């Protein structure tokens, strides 16, 4: 069962929900705070498109944690952003080996991805009357992507509100915590049941591997996303 939620703020949130560990934790975080929560996902031709297939069942299981979460969780929006896959050349949109680039970034970095995600999400939020955007960006324990940094999100919040004459708030609850703390946060929000759901039902692996179920979840165990997730789970398990 989910823990007793904090009193709801008079806000309505749109969560960027990929079907991965971070976005599922962010969804639980939003459901514990806001009176209405909707979700949005993006099909951008990602190599690990399996994440899109796990989303519907995940959303249904999140509803089952409490009556409050069920009542607060509203519509899911799936947006076709295949344009990103057409114009980018990365290890997340092409069948190439994961490696470091000359600019110091891994080739799993998809330029402009989060910028476009947030812009599209803001457009949907405008239409739906939602005033908070929630994303799983983090610069404490991540692969060095510049569009995951706090400065980027703050600047984007300003630009979106200036360009749309809105008062949207961009929330990034994972920004300053590592992956071990992300596992702990999920336990605080939904108990061991949510930790188990994230282990078995979410998808993070860049290669789309869902063979054996490890103690930290499904994945190849070698890509940057799996390494971060596995290391965080091991650190979490040592203190749980």
UniProtKB/TrEMBL annotation:
Q: Which reaction does it catalyse?
A: 7-carboxy-7-carbaguanine + NH4(+) + 2 ATP = 7-cyano-7-carbaguanine + 2 AMP + 2 diphosphate + 2 H(+)
- The enzyme's first-digit EC class, named in words, is ligase
**Residues reported in the UniProt entry to bind ATP:** 17-27
Keyword DNA damage annotated: no
Q: In which pathway does it act?
A: Purine metabolism; 7-cyano-7-deazaguanine biosynthesis
The catalytic activity of this protein is classed by the Enzyme Commission as 6.3.4.20
Q: Note how many cofactor molecules are bound and how.
A: Binds 1 zinc ion per subunit.
Listed cofactors: Zn(2+)
User: Which residues are noted in the entry as Zn(2+)-binding?
Assistant: 205, 220, 223, 226
Keyword Magnesium set for record: no
Q: Which domain of life is it from?
A: Bacteria
Q: Which UniProt keywords apply?
A: ATP-binding, Ligase, Metal-binding, Nucleotide-binding, Queuosine biosynthesis, Zinc
The record ties this protein, via PANTHER family, to:
7-CYANO-7-DEAZAGUANINE SYNTHASE
* Function (record text): Catalyzes the ATP-dependent conversion of 7-carboxy-7-deazaguanine (CDG) to 7-cyano-7-deazaguanine (preQ(0)).
Similarity annotation: Belongs to the QueC family.
The protein's name: 7-cyano-7-deazaguanine synthase
Query: What are the leading ranks of the lineage?
Result: Bacteria, Pseudomonadati, Pseudomonadota, Betaproteobacteria, Burkholderiales
């Amino acid at each position: 069962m989910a823990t007793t939620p904090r009193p709801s703020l008079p806000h309505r949130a749109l969560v960027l929900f990929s079907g991965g560990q971070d976005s599922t934790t962010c969804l639980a975080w939003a459901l514990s705070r806001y009176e209405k929560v909707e979700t949005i996902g993006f099909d951008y031709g990602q190599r690990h498109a399996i994440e899109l297939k796990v989303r519907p069942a995940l959303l249904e299981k999140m509803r089952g944690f409490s009556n409050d979460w069920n009542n607060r969780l509203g519509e899911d929006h799936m947006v076709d952003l295949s344009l990103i896959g057409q114009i980018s050349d990365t290890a997340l949109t092409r069948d190439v080996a994961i490696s470091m680039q000359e600019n110091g970034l891994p080739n799993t970095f998809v330029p402009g991805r989060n910028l476009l995600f947030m812009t599209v999400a803001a457009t949907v939020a405008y239409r739906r009357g939602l005033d908070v955007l929630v994303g799983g960006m983090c610069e404490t324990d991540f692969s060095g992507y510049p569009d995951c940094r706090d400065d980027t999100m703050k600047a984007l919040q300003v630009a979106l509100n200036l360009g749309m004459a809105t008062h949207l708030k961009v929330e990034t609850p994972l920004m300053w915590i590592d992956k071990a703390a992300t596992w702990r946060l999920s336990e605080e929000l939904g108990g061991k049941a949510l930790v188990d759901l994230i282990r078995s039902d979410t998808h993070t692996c860049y290669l789309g591997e869902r063979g054996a179920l490890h103690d930290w979840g499904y994945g190849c165990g070698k890509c940057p996303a799996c390494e971060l997730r596995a290391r965080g789970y091991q650190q979490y398990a040592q203190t749980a």
